Amino acid sequence: xxxxxxxxxxxxxxxxxxxxxxxxxxxxxxxxxxxxxxxxxxxxxxxxxxxxxxxxxxxxxxxxxxxxxxxxxxxxxxxxxxxxxxxxxxxxxxxxxxxxxxxxxxxxxxxxxxxxxxxxxxxxxxxxxxxxxxxxxxxxxxxxxxxxxxxxxxxxxxxxxxxxxxxxxxxxxxxxxxxxxxxxxxxxxxxxxxxxxxxxxxxxxxxxxxxxxxxxxxxxxxxxxxxxxxxxxxxxxxxxxxxxxxxxxxxxxxxxxxxxxxxxxxxxxxxxxxxxxxxxxxxxxxxxxxxxxxxxxxxxxxxxxxxxxxxxxxxxxxxxxxxxxxxxxxxxxxxxxxxxxxxxxxxxxxxxxxxxxxxxxxxxxxxxxxxxxxxxxxxxxxxxxxxxxxxxxxxxxxxxxxxxxxxxxxxxxxxxxxxxxxxxxxxxxxxxxxxxxxxxxxxxxxxxxxxxxxxxxxxxxxxxxxxxxxxxxxxxxxxxxxxxxxxxxxxxxxxxxxxxxxxxxxxxxxxxxxxxxxxxxxxxxxxxxxxxxxxxxxxxxxxxxxxxxxxxxxxxxxxxxxxxxxxxxxxxxxxxxxxxxxxxxxxxxxxxxxxxxxxxxxxxxxxxxxxxxxxxxxxxxxxxxxxxxxxxxxxxxxxxxxxxxxxxxxxxxxxxxxxxxxxxxxxxxxxxxxxxxxxxxxxxxxxxxxxxxxxxxxxxxxxxxxxxxxxxxxxxxxxxxxxxxxxxxxxxxxxxxxxxxxxxxxxxxxxxxxxxxxxxxxxxxxxxxxxxxxxxxxxxxxxxxxxxxxxxxxxxxxxxxxxxxxxxxxxxxxxxxxxxxxxxxxxxxxxxxxxxxxxxxxxxxxxxxxxxxxxxxxxxxxxxxxxxxxxxxxxxxxxxxxxxxxxxxxxxxxxxxxxxxxxxxxxxxxxxxxxxxxxxxxxxxxxxxxxxxxxxxxxxxxxxxxxxxxxxxxxxxxxxxxxxxxxxxxxxxxxxxxxxxxxxxxxxxxxxxxxxxxxxxxxxxxxxxxxxxxxxxxxxxxxxxxxxxxxxxxxxxxxxxxxxxxxxxxxxxxxxxxxxxxxxxxxxxxxxxxxxxxxxxxxxxxxxxxxxxxxxxxxxxxxxxxxxxxxxxxxxxxxxxxxxxxxxxxxxxxxxxxxxxxxxxxxxxxxxxxxxxxxxxxxxxxxxxxxxxxxxxxxxxxxxxxxxxxxxxxxxxxxxxxxxxxxxxxxxxxxxxxxxxxxxxxxxxxxxxxxxxxxxxxxxxxxxxxxxxxxxxxxxxxxxxxxxxxxxxxxxxxxxxxxxxxxxxxxxxxxxxxxxxxxxxxxxxxxxxxxxxxxxxxxxxxxxxxxxxxxxxxxxxxxxxxxxxxxxxxxxxxxxxxxxxxxxxxxxxxxxxxxxxxxxxxxxxxxxxxxxxxxxxxxxxxxxxxxxxxxxxxxxxxxxxxxxxxxxxxxx
Length: 1436
Hints:
The protein is mostly helical. It is built from 58 helices and six strands. α21 (about 495-520) packs parallel to α23 (about 555-585), α47 runs antiparallel to α48 (about 1210-1235) and α52 (about 1310-1325) packs antiparallel against α53. The radius of gyration is 54 Å and the shape is elongated.
């Protein structure tokens, strides 16, 4: 149904009363009285919008005095005061209020009020003009428009209706009567609180007046000073607080009765004086409290700043509304029953009993009505406060009701009830439903703020729909009571035209708007009640309009006004009936809904008949030459008759088109009703309505200027929509009941439209769309038996549509589709066809019916190419065509046509190079030519190199899934590994990833997966693939990729570690787990949400370390096999070192650098370290290291040493690796010392590996120095420990082998020290021959390689000592060599004159000769002679 429009947009323009009825010839007393009431407070005319309102501004109403007589406050009673008075001084309530006047004021409006008498007759006479000062206190009779006197008793309300209203009021206050009155102490506190808030209000008013005057003086009242705006805001807050305090003050006790007692008389007079003072302020400063803001200004308020001029006006308007209300409630303190609640507003006392005193006068009721009306509407419009506006407006209605009741027996009250006052009362009545509807918004706001406080929600809940409906009924009764006589009279009164043009239409619009809201929130009963009230109003208005049209004394202007009003009310009635029909349908009252649509048809036919009659009358008048009214613009007799005829015909044609469209809408609504569980009769009605709609569409109208394509499109869309709904419903019925046969509604269109008709392709497309909808429903309900038939029917319709095209030339086909049609029609048709076929492709693709999807995609390709004409894709990229080809390629590939799918994928890639098409190309390549997939993938990635990596990364999961989907094919593991390699490589190069990690920005990973998550999957797949890889080239490529990826991940880990620059502080004790460290106050890098999202978790980091260990072990084992084609131990060594780095990083803290740059990846060649064997390491290892991390470095060093001994690396590269290996050994030694000191095998491995690395460096002096710095001593200790444990001289053998290697590499110094070490080992063990290694041979080698006499003497001393201890430590042959060598060296030294050391050598020779063989012992005499000569030379 059609949503109602806003009131201001849909209400007919009111006509001035002076144009509707002649003005009164004489001014009666009532007119004089109203003129006096509306007197301005100053002599100069006001230019404010408030003063421009016609009897709606409360500035024109004056507060009555409490003695029952009308009291008009004098604006000029303080003229005698000094104009140079001091600024505003607001003191207590009992003190005078003094204010300095503005320059443009004629008097001091807030001067000393002590001159105000109890009876304000004097002030009245001094303030009003002479002709307005005399106001009658009573007027028993009134005059009508004809000047006749009428008895006021003839205009009394119906007694039964009045009693009903009073009964409702008494019922609303029943609950409040039982409330216990407050205690004296509580009352005293309430009095003080009320006084404080009123004091605060008066002070805020004085500040606001000064701010407003400052605005006017500086910028004409438009200054946007923040201080002034703050003053207005405080004024509004003070006014709201004072009002609410006043309401609470009298909520539990009727102040009108409480203030009657003598004890409270002074209190009442004080509050009434405050009310009069407030009213004087309002009258004196009308511009300050102006609440007239235009609708356009209010609509743009939300985008204004808080300090704008608009905001200031809004604050002042709200404050003015509340202050007006406070003033009236204080002035009427003795008349109002103040007991109220949220659902029970305050009311005036029923003063029917004449014996009671303090009965208000009629003018007091007029004053209360106007001021409360203005205040309540200001609160409603600007503050949007439900209770405050509802209570104020209800109090205004109480004033009107009391005045209305008084009019039954008081002539003066009857005189007040004139048209102007009725307009004011109608504004209040029409505002009350809006105020009651605000309870819903406030209730929803309370529930959203306090969802858990159910008791508070129950207290604040208001059953607002009945209140709204009650106000609609009251507004309807108001119109019936006060306007019925004027409507039924034959006079042209202003009240009659106000009722027809304003009262009844506004009531109908309010009911329609609220009925629409009721229907929207599911309150169907309330919606029907509101709409029934509105329809009754429209019916009444239309009936009286018809009566007025039948009168013969209508002027042209009046006839035109009634004609326009009649048309507007018909439209309003039709909207209401449509809405009511929809509500009745939702409630299950189908027949009633149909009756509403029948009434709509009656309205439409009557309107169409009136238009036809108007055209006929025009033509008749044109023929007779008489004048006539054709439209809103009158056509004079001087107009050309041909022009008049053409305009009339154009208007008739336009009217017929509108009527046709309305008939189509009505038929569509009826079809919707009948199509809901239809009977056989309903089916016939549906066919009749469809036939009528088809007839409207197919009927050929003459082309005119007013005929637009929009109207035709709307009718065609409505018709096709109705046909589609009926067709789908009947198709489902036929599938569920195989025997049922129903008429195909589309056949109605095909029968009416020829094959050459331009609308026929649209019908075919619409039916195709309906079939696709059915196909969707069939698969949703899994009706497999219907799949094939529905799919086949859809394909047939698609072929039927495509048959209308001829590929060579569109304009030479056998159809006239585009012969006479505009190019826009062709474009629209092709666009709609693309949408339908695209929907089909999407549906079948989502259902994974790839054969059908390929067919639809192929047809969509044809349509797209047709829409592009002969423009080939070779002239430029076509993204749409590329997308279609991509879907077609994927569908062909999935349906088994791999070659054709690959062809389409390449064509799609050529048309548009994007990531989506790359994914399709990759998928088709995996299906068609698996071996070359990565090659084609790399080529495509290179073409997308300029594209942002983050965009490409988003689609890598699709590439990975394609590899997994083809898991049965050979080599899929290698393909997936290749994709993972490229995925990680691109993700590590992502700038966004690095920036977010550095700045700790919480964002999603570019590919949706963290780096470590991808690395875990990659390492797992690598371990699987490498175990079966036999191709050397592929193995090298895999290992190279792995090394780059590990280095890149470690660099990211360092970025996280180094984000904070803090003082390096290490903890010497063993680091606990991450959870325990966090409990101790440490922040791990893994605690950051950005790190967890982008990089991964700590557990994944540990998993990667373990996986690298496993892969390193696997590569090491594979390299030593006989059939190994590639020695991967170099990579294995690096993987072990990387595992060390990963396990350290898993324990790293934010910015602390606890690892102290101990990462292997941070190795710097110029700063390499070597193991220390002289004591504890100078720089201890980090406390985040572990036994596992130390083992990783140790194993990495061992694998490297083995690999270098067998590989053919160049000398420079080998030396560099040996240096790095020494560095790893040094770090490993430090970590072992910290974490596992009791491990006995570790020092042995470190020492031996260190010695092997030193030999690999081939730096003899460096090796010699290292050996002497504790390495040999450490090896000796390890040897002794080994011998004590009963092991077999492994260290000795290793040292002997390294000694021989040193000799081969010409490292003589190293060879000597190692030989000496071997000799010491044998001596310490007490075994002199071990596996071919004898002590004598070692010492002989030491003697031969010695570089000094002292060194040789030392060896001979060892031999001498050993021979004395053990006779079997040397053989006779060895003693022969020692004897001969000692003799020869002694003779040589004696020859050169070194007789002292010669003597030592010869002494050793004599000692050794006794154990020599016979061959040597025979030369004993020669040795003795040589010894004697050396002794003689020394002088012995």
